Amino acid sequence: MSLITSRGLFMSDKESPSNESIPKEHREQRLMAFQMETPMMQIESNDYHDFVFRDGRLVGEFEQMYQKSREVPWHQDKDIARIDCRVALEMLATRGPYGRIIEIGCGLGYLADMISKKLGTNNVLGADISATAVSKAKVLFPRLDFTVLDITCPLNLSDSFDLIVLRGCFWYLFPQIEQVIENIVKLTKPNGHVMIAQNFPPLTGDFIGKETIPSPDSLLERFKPHYDIVMDVRLDDRQVKGGNDFWLIFLGRKKAL
Ligand SMILES: C[S@@+](CC[C@H](N)C(=O)[O-])C[C@H]1O[C@@H](n2cnc3c(N)ncnc32)[C@H](O)[C@@H]1O
Fold this sequence. Notes:
seven-stranded mixed beta sheet; 11 strands; Rossmann fold; alpha/beta; binds S-adenosylmethionine; two-stranded antiparallel ribbon
């Protein structure tokens, strides 16, 4: 893997412009200009892991990952057999029907498709930060709608949904977790539901994002001010073929204001 250039946020000291010779009032302006002119971090690899984490840091170059990865990132096409997906779908089915559904961080759309089939509706919108993932998902699942969305940015949407689903996304969203949760809450209709399915590595070890989300309970607690938790399932799938994680899967109903 080789890194050709770097964008502002992940600049090394060598790449970073020196501020010492610049009057203070111009520094911020210069940094902004530098960031705008500097191309995205270009990563030459066909291993999807290289676009996600590097040297113990979140890289998060998902657009390049979907363009360049040799294999299907996270083996999303195989997840249909994974027990956490089956449990999540059963949980959803016990509470439905829902009206408008959005899956955020939908990737190639496999889970959106499973939700659509399980709940017997095509009213499922898949949303992902990667335009390439979205166009591939449109080809794979033409019955469904897909759109590009960065859930870490402040959203100014008039749109809202009866069910919002995020699976396996928080290790890529944790630096902006407050904004992400604010967006999820805004996107949920009154009395609407949220389903979070999140994998956790062994909590005794170090992992990226641990300072922000040290445990399944800590993630759940962040949602409790906004949602009544109607189902909470913990699943250790490490003994299951293909499984390697501990899962928190919960369904919450938005609290009345
Ligand atoms: C582990 S994959 C999960 C894919 C799908 N949810 C599944 O369970 O098969 C995480 C997805 O989150 C997307 N993602 C990462 N950051 C995002 C952001 N800020 N906004 C929206 N999607 C994002 C990535 O592009 C990737 O497709």
